[in-house]
Amino acid sequence: MNEQLDNLGIVVVGASGDLATKKIFPALFALYCQGWLPEKFRVFGFARSELNDAEFRRRITEHLTCRYVPGESCEQRMGEFLAKCRYVQGAYDSRDSFLDLYQVMRETEDGESANRLYYLAIPPSVFVDVARAIGDAGLVSCGPGEPWSRVVIEKPFGRDRESSDELTQALSQVFSESQTYRIDHYLGKEVIQNLLVLRFANIVFEPLWNNKFIESVHIVWKENIGLEGRGGYFDQYGIIRDVMQNHLLQILALVAMEPPARLDPVNIATEKAKVLRCVPPLSLDDVVLGQYGESERSGRRSPGYLDDSSVPSDSITPTYAATRLRIGCPRWEGVPFLISAGKGLDARMTKIIIRFRSVSGNMFCELGGCPTPNELSIRVQPDEAIYLSLTNKVPGMGMTLQPRDLDLQYKEAFAEVIPDAYESLLLDVIEGDRSLFIQKNELEAAWDVFTPVLHEIERRRVKPEPYEFGSEGPAAVGKLTP
Ligand code: BG6
Predict the structure, then answer these.
(1) pLDDT tens digits, 302-328
(2) Ligand 1 atom with least separation from CA of 234
(3) Span 222-244, mean pLDDT?
(4) How far is the CA of 185 from the centre of ligand 1 (A)?
(5) Distance 243 CA to ligand 1 centre (A)
(6) Where are the alpha helices (H) located in 242-321, listed in sequence order?
(7) Is residue 190's pLDDT more than 60?
(8) C-alpha distances in Å from residue 202, one per residue of 186, 206, 334
């Protein structure tokens, strides 16, 4: 594989869709502005829509931002970037369409050979068709010394363990595991990337990071919006498959895993898969499901899930789920891991809360109540932050105790711009670093946690509990808290 080649063709399949226009092209532009892209890069948009280069460039421009090049030079940088973008219209399953793409690449690129990055920004149902067509057109190289070819795909990877295995198997006919980059964009988020550093580059946490000192771990994911035009997709999958089986289980793995032998993709994935393998598959008793309904607050009506025209009126797809997981390994035996995720809630927020145990025989309990146990909160978004609540003496006469936070706000502590997750991850693909991508073994382990309960929910047609849009979620979640 040729890491040195400065000729790179980035092919975005599904170039006219939301993911491409809102996330991928802006991330590529951000990388370009910071000088991270190789000297001779080109971007090729490929999709079914009839567009010419000018229309395509206009669509891309709508979402490009000047974050890294504020001021007048931004327009010039946009012009340079757009000049490197071409569009090819074609069918996803057609070898001939990809040969047309190849023709355009040859006309556009300088030099004979180029590394190739294929970003499949398309629904998973067409991943295999596209991969086969790319392979049949002879556009995947893998020999030693040849330019590299890499494919990026984004969840959902199947609907359960079996369909995920089928997808992995079918894609592996064209792209090897080491050429496949499965994105979970939460792994690109700054605070999530910091988890291993926080745990293993500091001495203060690791000795306490076990069931002797930690009482519970809570991973909370909330959105205060509804479907945002994605009802067709969401209703097929529901919140467990959309957010929990991937983003939240990945966070859990990083919080709970043992230290990897080295900081490389294989060792990291091995430890993540190992800890996920210690989680017994969930059953219905471990899960609370909810679905948001309409609400009327301060004179403003918010429609319910079933009011969305792309959702069947009798849908029982959950928009909220909470579960209590156990990790059956010596470090975590007896510590509940609560995970909750919901759309249409009261806030947008992702947070990890590590609740420590009370000090045993605490002499301060005599003062009229025991001090509140310490809590470490890691806020992934919005406003990245880490804070540790500690009990302190309130200044003044007498002895009054109160919890106060040691507070690390990223915005105050760091002058650097926090990159969008897609920027970090795309750069990793270009540099061939797979540490933040999902490997086959962890994907299998993650599906094994959720597959039985997903099947049970579907077999029994379990109805989610209604909750009001903008509320904290269904009341039944109380049954999961210890
Ligand atoms: C996606 C889910 O993976 O993540 C969406 O499919 C969700 O339903 C989105 O809205 C949230 O991402 P972020 O980065 O805005 O937290």
Answers:
(1) 999 999 999 999 999 999 999 999 999
(2) 8
(3) 94
(4) 8
(5) 7
(6) 249-256, 265-277
(7) yes
(8) 23, 8, 25
Helix (H) or strand (E) holding 350: strand 349-356
d(CA 355, CA 388): 10
Mutate to test the pocket of ligand 1, among 19, 185, 186 (most ligand atoms within 8 A of CB): 185
Per-residue pLDDT of 135-179, as tens digits, reads 999 999 878 888 999 999 999 999 999 999 999 999 999 999 999
Q: Which atom of ligand 1 is nearest to the CA of 155?
A: 3
C-beta of 242 in contact with ligand 1 (< 6 A): yes
- Residue 358 Cα to ligand 1 midpoint, Å, equals 35
Helix or strand or coil: residue 374? Answer: coil
Report the catalytic residues.
247
Type and span of the H or E element at 19: helix 18-19
Instruction: Order across the sheet with 85-89: list the strands.
Output: 85-89, 40-47, 7-13, 115-120, 149-154, 180-183
Measured between alpha carbons, how far is 255 from 404 in angstroms, rounded to an integer?
24
For residue 141, what pLDDT is reported? Answer: 86
H or E element at residue 466 = strand 465-468
Interval between CA 221 and ligand 1 midpoint (Å): 10
Q: What is the pLDDT of residue 111?
A: 67
Q: Give the residue, by CA position, lying nearest to ligand 1 atom 13.
A: 186
Query: Ligand 1 centre from 247 Cα, in Å?
Result: 9
Quick check: CB of 235 below 6 Å from ligand 1? no
Smallest CA separation from ligand 1 atom 8, residue = 242
- Looking at residue 251, its pLDDT comes to 98
| 70 neighbors 76 (Cβ within 8 angstroms) | no
Percentage of the chain lying above the pLDDT 70 cut: 98
Instruction: Give the C-alpha separation, 415 to 418, whole Å.
Output: 9
Rounded Cα distance, 30 and 114, in Å: 22
CA angle 377, 383, 389 (to 5 degrees): 25
- Atom 2 of ligand 1, nearest CA residue: 242
C-beta separation of 184 from 155 below 8 A? yes
Whether 448 shows a pLDDT value over 80: the answer reads: yes
Query: What pLDDT, in 10s, does the model give residues 12-42?
Result: 999 999 999 999 999 999 999 999 999 899 9
Q: Which atom of ligand 1 is nearest to the CA of 246?
A: 3
Distance CA 142, CA 1 (A): 7
Cβ–ligand 1 distance for 154 under 6 Å, the answer no
Question: For residue 482, what pLDDT band results from cuts at 50, 70 and 90?
Answer: low
pLDDT > 90 in the chain, percent: 89
